[in-house]
Amino acid sequence: MIGHGIGGGCAIETHDISDELKAAMVSRLRELKALRTEPVERAFLKVPRHKFTPGVPLDSAYDASQSVVVRRDADHAVVSTVSAPAIQAMMLEQAALRPGMRVLEIGSGGYNAALIAEMVGAEGAVVSIDIDPVVVDRARRFLDDTGYDTVRVLLGDAENGVPGVFDRVIVTAGAWDIPPAWWNLLAENGRIVVPVRLRGMTRVVALEKTRGVLVDRGHAQAGFVAMQGAGAHEDAFVSLWGDEEAGLRSEGAIDVDPAALAEALSQPRFPVWSGVTVTGEEPFDDLDLYLATHTDRFGTLVALRSAVEAKLVSRWALWGAPACYSDHGLAYRVTRKVPDTGRFELGVFAHGGDAAVLGDQWVRLIRQWDRTHRHGPGARISVYPASTTVDRVAPGFALQRDHSRFVVSWPTRTEGERPG
Questions:
Q1: What pLDDT is attached to residue 79?
Q2: What class of enzyme is it (predicted)?
């Protein structure tokens, strides 16, 4: 069997082991519920992922959950990847692409652009832009080699936009803001799928442009490399122990004396338990976003293993634990096993002079989330231009950015609805 890219370039031999691996990958994507529709499935079965990940073993290239590092900076930090198929499938489902659509991809790996090209067809148009010339050259070469030579690959800072109007914009790097150029190039009723940073957490949101507002059409948790260029944003960080072995990270300024916060963390932990339990398979990222959007002084407690081994912090800090703080205390969300049940109880470890107050506040929020929002519709994320007057903004927790105002609201479960 011979397959062809939409550009009519070189033919692609597909009767080899990569066909089996593609089929297995698609089956796994179905199991993960990342892939739900036939157009997305057909694209994944068609495009040879291994051609965009040279030097990577075939089984790794087609691993549904594995991303591939493309480029690191001088400090060896990852600045470009080919995202895991599960993430790409999820975002393509969110985008709801149709034949004939004009699509802008921000961040160029090549493979994702080829998937998009398969879905919009010969009558559609795909433009991909990246700030890194090495990444651009790589993507252009691989797209040409696999027959997707109609995809335009541009070098530039996407913060400034590109000429044209697009039905869909798919962003493949973590964004802190929605710059004016993105608003302007998105068609009315068009959709932008973008990983947005919300108080240190990333949510991939499908936002539909409707009468000057970007309206949430669904979101999910995922991790991405940070945006580069004019749209880059650096979090604040306060070291609380050792050589930055434990600390608090925040999107904005941490308005407390670091020495006082470090002193609070050094004091014995004060555990407060909520009585709310979850299974080992149940995600509670929804709860973490709820805590973040109901707390003024919020951050993420992070730590190296040395701080855990010193019993300064819980193991949750290894992955980043949502935290609240005051002038004289700090608290963060944890769990503990409930014996013989396979379940885990949600709670808080609090430290310092305000430990009891902070612990009680967050346990109340955990219980409130459990009563009125757990298994419900979840958060709704709306985005307005920064200049929008308050009377035109929906109620909710507002995050003001340079160009936009993000508003996170929490619809409750309908009356009589029971937790699942």
A1: 60
A2: transferase
Distances (CA, A) of 189 to 167, 208, 212, 217: 8, 6, 10, 12
* Cβ-based burial of 287 (10 A; exposed 0-12, middle 13-18, buried ≥19): buried
Task: Taking residues 148-169, report their average pLDDT.
Answer: 97
Q: What tokens does 26 get?
A: 């698609």
Residue 68: which pLDDT band, with cuts at 50, 70 and 90? confident
- In whole angstroms, what is the distance from residue 201 CA to residue 285 CA? 9
Residues 408, 57: Cα–Cα separation, whole Å: 42
E-state strands within 138-241: 152-155, 166-171, 186-198, 201-210, 213-221, 236-241
Q: Which residues are registered as beta bridge partners of 414?
A: none
Asked whether the beta carbons of 52 and 105 are under 8 A apart, the reply is: no
Q: Which two tokens stand for residue 277?
A: 């339990």
What is the token pair recorded at 385?
Answer: 């231009």
pTM for the model: 0.89
CA distance 265 to 106: 41
As a whole number, mean pLDDT of residues 145-155 equals: 97
Could you tell me the two tokens for 379? 């958060």
Contact (Cβ atoms closer than 8 angstroms) between residue 358 and residue 326: yes
pLDDT at 5: 40
- Residues acting as catalytic residues: 83
